[in-house]
Amino acid sequence: RLAPVAPGREAKGGARAAAEEAVGALYVGYGSQTGNAKAIAQDIFVQLTEAKMNPTIFPLDDWKKTTPAPLSTPGALLIAVVSTTGNGDPPQNCEKFTRFVKRRSHPADLLTDMRYTILALGDTNYDKFCYMGKLLDGRFSDLGATSFYPIGCADEGTGLEDVVDPWRDGLMPALELAMSSSGEAKAGAAKGDKVAKSEAPAVDGAAAAR
Asked: Has this prediction a pTM greater than 0.70?
């Protein structure tokens, strides 16, 4: 069922013109231990690519290598698919990212530019069900990020698809709305800048030289 990822579209650290041209760069990040979260993330990536939304996909530990920067690009939209391993532990390709996000020294507005949603994978046979997804959701919010679509918590014990499928059905409309509002905000800011410039008093050459 998993469609192949288009060659060259997985983030390796180089700048991507398509992402830079998008209305708020769009990212699919994943933290995956057994491969389930990665497979779902790749499915979402392919769906967004086919919809010409220009996404970038990357393991969350590669957030520093990904450009434009997912945590600080104005209007950035992050879809994070994250599993929990052991008893509330992060997957190996999400450990560094988790430690970074958990730092209490961060300013409260660190992620103000970012909007996000999270699909958490877990197993109710363990005490800390979907712990990593819930942790990231809380920390993103604490650091100023805004959720554009509610977190989904899928249970491997009863069948991941029971939550994953309906969550994905609602993702596209929520994402389109988020991208639309981002475009309107940019247009409004540009219009306001033009008005401000047109109303600014003229400065003669002599004054400008001083």
From this structure: yes
